[in-house]
């Protein structure tokens, strides 16, 4: 394996792992905001407890996601300085905005939400979680603006061997970014919805005491997941209109279309192999569509089943199926990400900079060392995150500490 292959593998593993945290963060943040809105409007004790329980799962995942996200910033300087030197003036602007949104606005308001329980007015506290949710989506938006530029370069000028941003509006309106944003946003709601439904189904199958709590949670999870599948499929279909010719040819598998795409690229850019890795593109696309069909079918059937209270309460095979499906949306998201990113190869910036030319001047040994270190750290973080989420989910709402009143506030005051 060559140095560039190791560098690509390193970025793929670290970015893919971070993507899993992001998907769950977006989905759970939205669900928690919806639950807290209902709790605030109705003063419902059970929905307030639901907010705290699902909010604690959200916080655990968010904290781990921040750690993995920091690595992405180092990756660009460590392994891909050629990319940042050539195109950093263009996509760096959206990355800078994302940093401000995520690390200053989102994190600040999340901290206020976490520590503002029982201290802030309930409407002010509700506003905080909506600011957190909207800034989470804003963060994802600006990341995809950067990624969209790599997929479909717009709004730039090539000057003195580097790219200069000339049209910020074109960069923001890039269809390769906007369609992906809505597609991924819908996918995140599927991830969050199936996690909520699966955890709830586990407790219903185990006949835990919180039956009403988890019946409501299961209905909400499925109630969000089903329309989210339709929304995601719609923008996924639209997204095929923005694919590069070589990616479309690779997806079709047609020898004739592959030959045409290769000949077109040779005529435009000179001799070379311009076709993406066909096996990865096909495997990613087929896996994504197959698992998506499973999720759509299960969410559709589950939507009908949840209308009947006895079924929600006692149909254990359905409960265990929903529990087993918790990882499936994550795998679906990763498969789609592989299809999107592998289909861009051999370009780092499509049509402008090849991946091999985007690398930093690092040795094979240096990349191998950093790959080993990053994979080890990320594996530990994923395992810790899974353990914390699973432990918190199994214990149920009684073990939640988010929003608890400090002892000094609830204990009787002693006077002497």
TrEMBL record:
UniProt key word Ribosomal protein: no
Topology term for the membrane: Multi-pass membrane protein
Membrane-spanning intervals of the chain: 20-41, 53-71, 91-115, 127-150, 170-197, 218-240, 280-308, 320-339, 369-389
Pfam family, one: Cyt_bd_oxida_I
Leader sequence segment: none
Superkingdom, taxonomy of origin: Bacteria
Keywords: Cell membrane, Electron transport, Heme, Iron, Membrane, Metal-binding, Transmembrane, Transmembrane helix, Transport
Keyword set includes Manganese: no
Localization per Swiss-Prot or TrEMBL: Cell membrane
Family statement: Belongs to the cytochrome ubiquinol oxidase subunit 1 family.
Protein name: Cytochrome ubiquinol oxidase subunit I
Organism, as annotated: Nonomuraea guangzhouensis
């Amino acid at each position: 394996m060559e140095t560039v292959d190791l560098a690509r593998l390193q970025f793929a593993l670290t970015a893919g792992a971070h993507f899993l945290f992001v998907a769950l963060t977006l989905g759970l943040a939205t669900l928690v905001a919806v639950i807290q809105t209902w709790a605030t409007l109705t003063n419902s004790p059970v929905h307030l407890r639901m907010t705290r329980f699902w909010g604690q799962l959200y916080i655990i995942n968010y904290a781990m996601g921040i750690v993995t996200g920091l690595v992405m910033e180092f990756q660009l300087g460590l392994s891909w300085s050629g990319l940042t030197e050539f195109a950093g003036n263009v996509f760096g602007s959206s990355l800078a905005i994302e940093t401000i949104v995520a690390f200053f606005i989102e994190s600040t308001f999340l901290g206020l939400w976490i520590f503002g329980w029982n201290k802030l007015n309930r409407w002010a506290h509700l506003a905080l979680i909506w600011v957190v949710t909207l800034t989470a989506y804003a963060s994802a938006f600006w990341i995809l603006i950067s990624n969209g530029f790599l997929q479909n370069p717009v709004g730039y000028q090539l000057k003195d061997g580097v790219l200069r941003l000339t049209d910020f509006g074109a960069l923001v309106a890039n269809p390769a970014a906007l369609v992906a944003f809505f597609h991924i946003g819908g996918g995140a709601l599927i991830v969050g919805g199936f996690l909520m439904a699966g955890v709830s189904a586990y407790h219903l199958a185990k006949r835990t005491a919180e039956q009403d709590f988890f019946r409501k949670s299961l209905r909400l999870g499925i109630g969000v997941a089903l329309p989210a599948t339709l929304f995601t499929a719609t923008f996924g279909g639209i997204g095929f209109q923005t694919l590069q010719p070589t990616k479309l040819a690779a997806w079709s598998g047609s020898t004739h279309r592959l030959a045409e795409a290769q000949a077109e690229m040779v005529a435009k850019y000179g001799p070379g192999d311009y076709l993406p890795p066909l096996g990865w593109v096909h495997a990613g696309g087929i896996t994504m569509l197959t698992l998506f069909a499973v999720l759509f079918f299960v969410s559709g059937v589950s939507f009908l089943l949840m209308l009947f209270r006895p079924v929600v309460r006692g149909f254990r095979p359905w409960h265990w199926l929903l529990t087993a499906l918790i990882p499936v949306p994550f795998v679906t998201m990763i498969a789609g990400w592989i299809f999107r990113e592998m289909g861009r190869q051999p370009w780092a910036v499509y049509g402008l900079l090849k991946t091999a030319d985007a690398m930093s001047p690092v040795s094979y040994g240096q990349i191998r060392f950093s790959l080993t270190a990053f994979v080890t750290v990320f594996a530990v973080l994923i395992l810790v995150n899974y353990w914390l989420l699973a432990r918190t989910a199994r214990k149920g709402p009684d073990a939640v500490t988010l929003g608890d009143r400090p002892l000094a506030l609830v204990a009787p005051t002693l006077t002497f």
